[in-house]
Predict the structure.
Amino acid sequence: MDNLLDQLTANFEDSFSLVNYIAYILICVLLLYVLALGYKRYGQSMSNRAQLSKVLMIVGVTTFIIISIVKSSLALSLGLVGALSIVRFRTAIKEPEELGYFFIAIAIGLGMGANQLLPTLLGFVVLMGIVVFMYQRGSKGSSITQNLLIQSTPSTQTNQINAINDIVGKHSRQLELKRIQENQELITVNYLIKVASMDALNTMNSELRALDKTMDITFIDNTL
């Protein structure tokens, strides 16, 4: 019984080393920074990768701090389980790739927080190698990400929005509709698209022009 009470009231101060803590958290930040650069360079997500890369570093360092605090105390570990049971994460992960990078950031924080330097480094190197290999392998099928803004006058002869959607969807590898605004004088449609090449953009532009010669078409580079 006494041993159990000792475990529940154990304090990490007895085994805490400030030098080791600073060294491990700096290494953790460095690995997370490399991960953020890798995500911005090799990520295929259509979301704002520059913004999400900052979140990856915050998540990783937060995980490191939590593990550093609870790893030597059973009471704190049980308290963490209770605290997490009432937390609800309501921000949706739009693309599976984002979830994968979040798991990598959490794994780095867990490994460094538990003072597992070598396994964390080896695992991180292997993962980044896989990311680079997959990117290089798919470079032949690389795509162009663009913001597409279309403004057109309403037509009584055809459903203008459906016709625009058909043309844009036909020439896009990936399509995300951002906004539709329609009134008696103007139709405004905003997309985030991925296309295979400039030829696909030119073909899309030509078909949209054929639909309405007065249509205002704007392509904005979305490379992050």
User: Anything to note?
Assistant: The first helix runs from residue 2 to 8. The helical segments are 2-8, 18-42, 49-70, 74-84, 96-113, 117-137, 160-170, 198-211. The longest strand covers residues 144-152. Residues 23 and 112 are 10 Å apart (CA to CA).
